Amino acid sequence: MDGMKTDGRVERGNQTRRLVLGRTMDIASVEGLEGLSLGRIATELNLSKSGVFALFGSKEELQLATVRAAVAVFSGSVVAPLADLPAGPGRVWALCRNWLAYSSERVFAGGCFFYAVSAEFDARTGPVHDAIAQARRDWVTYMEQTLDDARLAGGLVADVDVPQVAFEVIALMEAPTALGSLPGYPRPTAGARGAIARPPGGEATDGARDDIGDS
User: Fold this and answer.
1) Span 2-213 CATH architecture
2) Are 202 and 92 in contact (CB under 8 A)?
3) Per-residue model confidence as pLDDT tens digits over 183-213
4) C-alpha span between 169 and 21 (Å, rounded)
5) Residues 6 or more apart whose Cβ sits within 8 Å of residue 58
């Protein structure tokens, strides 16, 4: 019986944690991680402040937990759907499409979570900055690996500058996030899709270009 009671408390705690992090990710994507506080979350979700404190302990731990949760959501939305796709330009293009959908369809309320919090913590130091920086490095590394896998599979020209193409593609994908809410840019995502198709297409071997055009 005691074990059942303990299991019930643990599950309730996990449910509350998921509820809190769902809200904090949306807040942070719009207002930044500094917009989070244990008291605010408790009030908005009608939870006890002591209960929220017991789960997270401090504002910094709440911020770190929010970053970790956002990494998991990002991975599930952008990376996981590629699991069955073979290496090549088509996989690179699918990765880009997934990212643009993740941003434009507002998986997070403010668009790209990491674009927002990276700007916020860029000039700071500490554990939250480090967690965001690591997430960004992991994303760049994944993009570079996806491009290099395409090169090794014969889908990109052998001498392609993988880090440079990765930099250009990521920059193009993030442009709609910067411009999407500003007047004068009615179709930023469509513009990014067209621009992104060119770097992988330009580096693709002749036999692989149709994979991008048909994707």
Assistant:
1) Orthogonal Bundle (1.10)
2) no
3) 554 454 555 555 555 655 455 544 444 444 4
4) 30
5) 38
